[in-house]
Amino acid sequence: MTEMFSNLYGQNEAQGPPGSSSLGFGPGKPPPPLPPNQVTMAAQMPPQHGDEGPALRKPGAMNEPFYLLRELPVGNELTGNTNLITHYNLEHAYNKFCGKKVKEKLSNFLPELPGMIDCPGTQDGSSLRSLIEKPPVCGNSFSPLTGASLAGFRLHTGPLPEQYRLMHIQPPKKKSKNKHKHHRPQDPIPQETPSDSDPKKKKKKRDDDPDRKKKKKDKKKKKNRHSPDHPGLAGSQPNSNSLR
Amino acid sequence: MAEKFDNLEEHLEKFVENIRQMGIIVSDFQPSSQTGLNQKLNYMITGLQDIEKCRQQLHEINVPLEAFEYIDQGRNPQLYTKECLERALAKNEQVKGKIDTMTKFKSLLISELGKVFPEEMTKYKAIHGDDPPLIVTLDL
Fold this sequence. Notes:
The complex is a heterodimer.
Chain A: H1 2-9, H2 12-15, H3 36-44, E1 61-62, E2 69-70, H4 84-87, H5 91-99, H6 106-109, H7 121-124, H8 128-133, H9 147-150, E3 158-159, H10 162-165, H11 199-208, H12 210-226
Antiparallel strand pairs in A: 1-2
Chain B: H1 2-27, E1 28-29, H2 34-57, H3 65-72, H4 78-116, H5 118-128
Keywords (chain B): Activator, Nucleus, Transcription, Transcription regulation
Pfam family, one (chain B): Med10
Subcellular location (chain B): Nucleus
């Protein structure tokens, strides 16, 4: 490449220092005529336009009439000049998500999901990231449990230990002004199922609820404290905070 | 497409509700609740079978991992969508600004070169087509 360049323009150095005039630039100056041997060299040179040529020359570059004149790139129809939101018909989505305030908590997105879902998943090991990094062993088909398998699910009677009780308690929800007809009960009472349609069973379950038992106990204690027949201190006891 | 999601959503809701009821039964277990618990355990297995069937219809669905980050933090995943749209719009505006600036520069350069090198610019325009300047006045 450099040899060809020097062959083309090297002899001009004998005439004068190479400057803008030798390249044909400059206000109103005509380009100098090529010496005869350079004309033949130019004729012998392979066609510039579109040839692969030496590795240094970029494809599509021409040397006539301007050095390294390239073809303009084919313009894309879709550029940053276009409003891409409109182009992909996302105005509705944009107004929905960016026009209105989106609530921060996960429980606002999944209001029907029970449990404390607003806490980070890393705290109780329920993160989706851990599920992706360590997927559970699966592949076997799901088959119903037989009698022998169900024997392992025979539980002891009575309430759960304290540490496991909070699993089914929902976080307190703000009461909205417009009360929805579909209201999920906060108390851990199971919804009606075909097997539990008997009203007697319903009453029994309500009585067996541990929270209600505690409430009843507290109420009894309060009554006993404030009654004149109570042997302990009368009237000076601080009120205990009852459970909700 | 939406039907597949509705189907999966329905199965998931039933499954979660079943698990919730199992939790209530277990929280204060009575011997009479054993049959109900066994029934719910089998409901849980059929629920898993139904969810497994839904998986085959949704194997082409891709979910961005960044959305999982929001869920793991206890945040609404719609915030991820919102932030994506806002970032896309901001980038769109940024690129549009660059295009506009480069277009103005090109017009200005062509007009100034035309004043300084009129003959050369005539040749250039003959090759690349007459590219009229997009601006008439200069914002200086």
